[in-house]
Amino acid sequence: MNAFGIHLVGLSADTGRKLLATIVLVAALLLLRWVVTALAHAVFRGHDRRSADPEVEHRDERRRFWARQAVRILVAVVFVLGVASIWFDDPGRLATVAGLLTAGVAIALQRVITSVAGYLIILRGRTFTVGDRITMGGVRGDVVALDFMQTTVMEMGEPPSMQTDGTPSWVHARQYTGRIVRITNDRIFDAPVYNYTREFPYVWEEMHFPIKYDDDRDRVERLLVEIARKHTAPIIARATPALRALERRYPIAAGEELEPRIYLRMTDNWLEFSLRFLAEARTVRGVKDAMTRDILAAFEGAKIGMASGTYEIVGVPPLRVEVTSP
Q: What confidence tens digit (pLDDT) does each residue in 123-138 have?
């Protein structure tokens, strides 16, 4: 092909037509993706018409997410098929080129291919989706985006005893730190993925209280259980049908207690009361804070003290100072 009197090596009229067709295909697919995405936002309460109900908005956000994922996959498949149809009209050439290309890509882009495979497993296996609270690759938080290569998480803090990597968190509870973390999807093959909210959005929590041996143990247990029931009764009512559904789906031990329960453990210095109770995965810290305030007030009213391993100096021997004149 000649352009402005210059002979373009390797570019013929047929190649030019194929190149033009490829550009048209890419433009059409981009336009199709934009149109379908806009329609999905309009149908599922788009950004301009968000619902005041958090549950409805959360459900609509999930629908918008799955619509976007379907569009991305459809566009990718059509693009690959379209480019192959335009440039490789000879099936023999297509098979040869595809074989060489596949071998080269498999060697050079192993992590990329593994990440895409992880993406497909995440979707097909229902490992997690946007809005779920997970721990993946050592990062705990809420999934805010998911694409072919990466999972984007709004990070949460964690207690110092659970911080094992080199980037410790300054937030010592399950609340947002403000950091956005991107994790490659291939990490699902390296370590377990913990999902806190997908099928059973509740967790069993424990609070530990060292009580002196000479305190009224029965009264301590009664106070702790009463306060825990006060704060967890609505949670238990919502969690009961969810737990029964989980038991029907998985062969887990039936009859797990949802009511608060006290467990005792003897130590050399005190009697440890372990209060076990159910809480929603997203509101654990608030529930524990409210319970702690009520427990402190109840212990103060009942004259119950917390034991500790510190020592108190109750007396100092008299000191005698003599001053000798020179």
A: 887 889 888 999 998 8
